Amino acid sequence: MPHQPTFFILAGGRGERLWPLSTATQPKPFLPLFESKTLIERTLERIQGLTPPDRIFIVTTQSLREVVARTLPHLPQTQILCEPQARNTAAAMAWICGLLRKRCAEGIGVVLPADHLIHDTATFQEAIQTACTLAKTRRQIVTLGIHPTRPATEYGYIACGKSVATETGSAKEGVGFTEKPDSSTAKTYLNAGNFLWNAGMFIWQADVLDAQIRSLAPAFSPLLDNPEAVETLYNTVPAIAFDYAVMEPCDAFTVVEGTFDWDDVGSYPALARHLPEDEMHNRTNGVGHFEQAERCIVLSTTPQHKVIVAHMADLLVAQTPTVTVICPTSEAHRIPQWIADDTK
After folding, report:
1. Residues 6+ apart with CB under 8 A from 160
2. Strand residue runs (E) in 114-190
3. Nearest CA to 307 among 295, 205, 320, 248?
């Protein structure tokens, strides 16, 4: 690559929409959901060859350090960066920007979520390379956008303007950023044709991101100035997403169009789309047995635990050694609410 970037893989969060499989002590990135590999392992495999191994860092919370170390035993402990507490992504972005800027103000940082599923590695790597080049030449934050296939309300939307010249791939001027719109607005964006989904991937030169954070979200400046004081500073900054704090008010950024397959597998129906399907459209990770059932989803963290579903339709069964959830698939989005109700 023309500029060897530093990768920061964000691996926090609780993954409540996939509870009880995903929990606070073992969230979605660390579940062996596909081919006995975790999503974070697949993320690291996807960036092999883009930068030296010592430029790859996992950003997580202190409570998940041991989970990261156990899942990635070959990753040096010094490359596990632990937030003192969960503080949302704006704090994490300011902290890692401060760390990189102190080492190299012109260094390129790449931030990727740890829990997304992408199969087309070659096209993904090409998009990252294009983004790194544009971050250097245009001196703007660069993000990767995904062509929407439905009016989703769980994603942010990027309004795209004029094309940007690139040697590879396709890029646009970013002219607007709206995080998680309502259903009506999402339909308008989908029909407009010039909006892309925000995939939560950001590429930037350290001094450029530093300037944008100081201008648009100055409350995070202490983390830029003293990233080594993270233990004392972290609870003094707002708990807000980077998308809201910086990207929504940002009036000049660049978007690389992601033409690779992409899914954040953030819900049970999304997860099920990537599992084998039988002739009655049932899906399972290997534990389900179906008798005159259709469109059912059965998942378990215990491979030897057989689940039989008979004479049912559109049912979700999610099983762990301590908790089992059974509900209509259409109601799975309410799982976070049920967790909250159960803890009152």
Report:
1. 145, 172, 173, 174, 175, 194, 195, 196, 255
2. 142-146, 157-164, 171-178
3. 320
Same domain for 213 and 113, yes or no, is yes
Q: Nearest to residue 126, comparing CAs of 156, 155, 166?
A: 166
* DSSP strand pairing (56-61 vs 288-291): unpaired
**Rounded CA separation 261/274 (Å):** 12
Domains identified in the chain, total number = 2
What is the identity of the amino acid at 271?
A: L
Nearest Cα to Cα of residue 75 among 49, 55, 100, 96? 55
Check if the beta carbon of residue 89 is closer than 8 Å to that of residue 83.
no
Q: Are residues 67 and 124 in the same domain?
A: yes
User: Could you identify the residue written with the tokens 């579940």?
Assistant: 31
Domain that holds residue 294: 268-342
| Cα 303 to Cα 90: distance, rounded to the nearest angstrom | 38
CB 158 within 8 A of CB 165: no
Pair (143, 46) in one structural domain: yes
Helix (H, G, I), strand (E, B) or coil at 329: helix
* Cβ contact 214:250 at 8 Å: no
Q: DSSP of 268-304, one letter per residue?
A: HHHHHTTS-B-TT--EESS-EEEES-BS-EEEES-TT
Contacts within 8 Å (CB) and 24+ apart, 300-303: 301/21, 301/31
Per-residue pLDDT of the chain (344 residues; tens, 9 = 90+): 446 899 999 997 767 888 888 888 888 899 887 777 899 999 999 999 999 999 999 999 998 999 999 999 999 999 999 999 888 999 999 999 999 999 888 999 999 999 899 999 999 999 999 999 999 999 999 999 999 999 988 889 999 999 998 888 899 999 999 988 999 999 999 999 999 999 999 999 999 999 999 999 999 999 999 999 999 999 999 999 999 999 999 989 999 999 999 998 888 888 888 888 999 999 998 889 999 999 999 998 887 889 999 999 999 999 988 889 999 999 988 888 887 655 44
